[in-house]
Amino acid sequence: MGAANIRAAVVGGGIGGLSAANALLRRSIDVTVYEQAPQLGEVGAGVFIYPNSLRQLERMGFRKALAKVGAKVGAGSEYYRMDGTLVGKILTTDSSGWNGMYGMHRADLLNAFAAAFPANAIRTGHRCVGFEQSKDVARLQFANGNVAEADLVIAADGIQSALQKYVVEPSTPEYSGSRAYRGLIARDKLPNWRREAHQVWMGDGKHFMVFPVRRGELLNYVGFVPTENETVESWSAVGDRNELAASFAGWDAAVVDLIEQIETCFWWGLYDRRPLRSWVNGRLALLGDAAHPMLPHLGQGANQAIEDGVALAVLLEGRDADEVADILPSYERFRRERTDVVQAEARKNGLRYDSRSGTLEQRDKEIASSATLRKWLYDYDVEQAAISYRAESRTAAHA
Ligand SMILES: Cc1cc2nc3c(=O)[nH]c(=O)nc-3n(C[C@H](O)[C@H](O)[C@H](O)COP(=O)(O)OP(=O)(O)OC[C@H]3O[C@@H](n4cnc5c(N)ncnc54)[C@H](O)[C@@H]3O)c2cc1C
């Protein structure tokens, strides 16, 4: 049998799935996305796209599309104590000074990704309910009765991944003890708000953050509050605005005034998972939250998912369908070194934000010097690193 191009199936049309599918397409790998929802869509909330993933998305052809809908984040970005005392500046550039960072409305990001696909490459209304594979092919079953075959299956189906159990024994996500109240406010309601600022206020067991999205027309806010009750992870759960206001009563006037403007907010229980034993099995690979769900305290979950997709695409480019199962372990080896660190650092940063990391003075010092970690995150170029890794692996194999 001659060489055959890889046919990939991506399960999950979230930020991880659609960006991975774009990365594969860009490297001439045939791809179909299967999403359970009847339509692609994301909740009305913001997501940070940091330099480490923005430089990848720009190379993938999204420079103009993102500049059109993103909100530049930069000037005035600062950390404060709960009363508004300045703790330090927030780094918003990479080491070269490139201010490649957007606050994005999640739906805007997904729309940009989806617009780049050929017709029929995204199949909505396809909830994956089963997976099997032989040496030659992988097969997916969907709740609507359809079946699909592929040489490679990427499980980008989120923290409650249905496909994870085909890779490792199921492990339940761990509840952080904290809940995020979240939503969007028209910037017109707060005309004096700093246009480009990412701002974080840190108090006892709680923190509050704000950044602009959609060209700066909207402000995305998140209030993190401890709770004993494990909240479902559902953006459709409507939060109690008065409870949010009570949680931040007496904080800096900027926070209190913003909360006064909120009409509706949503809440979300915060979960992560310790690093999984494995991410791949034969022709199946986990990606994004399905592989490494992390707490949002570094804003890197979606950014790391985007990096995963680029890495996979580089490692698979030009390879044969028969080689997929041999290549996937190198994707896991290459990626988890970084994501294990980011998962752990996100937990630590949450403790700092919630003032649970030593004395306040120690915490303030750590926050003020957090630029070192941020530089490590933002300077990384996953495409270049994966190209080098692939070349080194080849040299080692031929040695
Ligand atoms: C409060 C909060 C703030 C955050 N802020 C940031 C931030 O600023 N920056 C950042 O990088 N990250 C942030 N994150 C994390 C980020 O949202 C996630 O890491 C990211 O969305 C993961 O993307 P994903 O595509 O892997 O999974 P998901 O976004 O969960 O997408 C999974 C997709 O798969 C679909 N699906 C599920 N099961 C099936 C099935 N069986 N068959 C077919 N389809 C299926 C779902 O419908 C969904 O569309 C934040 C998270 C929270 C909770």
Radius of gyration, CA atoms, in whole angstroms = 21 Å
- Beta-strand percentage? 15-25%
Bound molecules: flavin-adenine dinucleotide
Gross CATH architecture of one domain:
3-Layer(bba) Sandwich
Biggest sheet, in brief?
8 strands, mixed
Element-by-element helix/strand order? EHEEHEEEEHEEEEEEEEEEHHEEEHHHHH
Poorly predicted runs are none
* Lateral arrangement of strands in the main beta sheet: 6-5-14-15-16-13-18-17
| Highest CATH level, the class of one domain | Alpha Beta
Mean pLDDT across the residues is 94
Shape: globular
Number of helices: 10
Give the distance, in angstroms, between the N- and C-terminal Cα atoms.
28 Å
What is the fold-level CATH name, i.e. the topology of one domain?
Answer: FAD/NAD(P)-binding domain
How many DSSP E strands? 20
The amount of helix comes to 25-40%
Which superfamily, in CATH terms, is the homologous superfamily of one domain?
FAD/NAD(P)-binding domain
Structural class, judged by helices and strands? alpha+beta
Written description of the protein model:
By secondary structure, the chain is an alpha+beta fold. It has a domain at 7-69 and 102-172 and 274-351 and 380-398: FAD/NAD(P)-binding domain (3-Layer(bba) Sandwich). Helices cover 34% and strands 24% of the residues. It is built from ten helices and 20 strands. The strands form four sheets. The chain has an eight-stranded mixed sheet. It has a six-stranded mixed sheet with strand order 8-2-1-12-20-19, with helices on one face. The longest helix has 30 residues, at 324-353. The mean pLDDT is 94. The structure holds flavin-adenine dinucleotide. Flavin-adenine dinucleotide binds at residues 11-17, 34-37, 47-48, 126-128, 156-158, 162, 180, 182, 222, 268, 288-290, 296, 299-303, 305.
